Glyoxalase/Bleomycin resistance protein/Dioxygenase superfamily protein
Amino acid sequence: MTRPRLRHLAFVVRDAEQLASFYRDRLEMEIFHKDPDGSHFLTDGYLNLALIQQQLDGEASSGFNHFGFQVDDVETVSDRFADAGVPRPVQRPSDRPFAEYRAIDPEGNWFDLSEHGYLPPPA
C-alpha cells in the first residue's frame, strides 16, 4: 500500500464565490465544482481546496473545517484506527461525492478518507 496522501483542505468562508475567484485569478487554481449552497471546490492539479459557504443557520463558524487523505484501502486504515482506540471512520452521505468517509483524530479534529481522491467521480 502506498502512504496516505494529504489531498484536501476545507475552510468555511463568508463569501465562497469571491474567495474562489481570488484563488483562480491570483494563484491559477481551477474551479471544478460549485454546490447549490454556494460552496466552491478548486484544485491546483494535486491538492483540492473546498471553500464551504458559511450558512447563518449552520453550526460551523468561518475558518478551518477539515482536511482529507487519499488512501488505497479505507478498511485497512480503519483497522489501524481501531487498534489505536480511535473510532472507525463513518461513511459520508451520498450527496458528498468528494470523500467517502469521515474520521476523527484523538484530539477531535475531523478529516476525510477517500479511495478515489478529491476530484468529482467520473460522470
Q: What stands out?
A: The radius of gyration is 15 Å.
